[in-house]
Design brief:
The protein has 214 residues and is of the alpha/beta class. It has 8 helices and 8 strands, in the order βαβαααβαβαβββαβα.
């Protein structure tokens, strides 16, 4: 089983990726990790990536896709792979399809975890953590017993990340949608796209994804 996992920030994609990896015994490929691994191995491709990163440049779609292909070339005892965070746009999807076809590899399903934008923004902008113990809260969905204070640290204050604002997250979600809608349309036209409601519990979302894959 070879799948692509899509989902906006704040929808719980990372949690679902871990569950899917373990349940279906998949090789989990994220582009960031793949780039770092290739660089650390010192392969010709890794050295090329290193030079680009050290100069502050952006790694091209061609190089990123070649690294993804390299990452899935040896599955070992895995029963397939899951691409997480790639492709990010239509151009990357078309390039990936071309390189996979050259190796007679196909994508079986593209899971798109869908979310209500307003709820996702509340999830993200409502995050707080204890300045002392680091315990996480959400002022909307998992608030402390006393507003602004940690439940377990005798009134220690809760802090908010500087970038956890509704404006910031709205911009990020809008950017994600702008890039991903053409990508979803592309995979839908190929009969691969399987939207899943990401607004349920972790368990229910995982169950729905699993059913979509079977």
């Amino acid at each position: 089983m070879n799948i692509i996992l899509l989902g906006p920030p704040g929808v719980g994609k990372g949690t679902q990726a871990t569950l899917l990896r373990d349940h279906f015994k998949l090789l989990h490929v994220s582009t960031g990790e793949a780039l770092r691994k290739e660089k650390s191995l010192g392969t010709p491709l890794g050295k090329e990536v290193g030079k680009i990163m050290e100069s502050g440049g952006l790694v091209s779609d061609d190089i990123v896709t070649r690294i993804v292909i390299s990452a899935i070339s040896d599955l070992g005892d895995k029963k397939g792979f899951m691409l997480d965070g790639y492709p990010r746009n239509l151009a990357q999807a078309e390039l990936l399809a071309k390189m996979l076809a050259e190796k007679s590899i196909k994508i079986d399903s593209v899971i798109s975890i869908e979310a209500d934008k307003e709820i996702v923004i509340k999830r993200l902008a409502g995050r707080r953590s204890c300045e002392k113990c680091g315990k996480d809260y959400n002022i909307h969905f998992n608030p402390p017993k006393v507003a602004g204070e940690c439940d377990v640290c005798d009134g220690a204050k809760l802090i908010c990340r500087a970038d956890d604002t509704e404006e910031t997250h709205l911009r990020r979600l809008t950017e994600y949608e702008d890039k991903t809608e053409p990508l979803k349309a592309y995979y839908s036209s190929k009969g691969l796209l399987k939207p899943v409601d990401g607004m349920g519990t972790v368990e229910s979302v995982f169950r729905d994804i699993s059913e979509a894959l079977n």
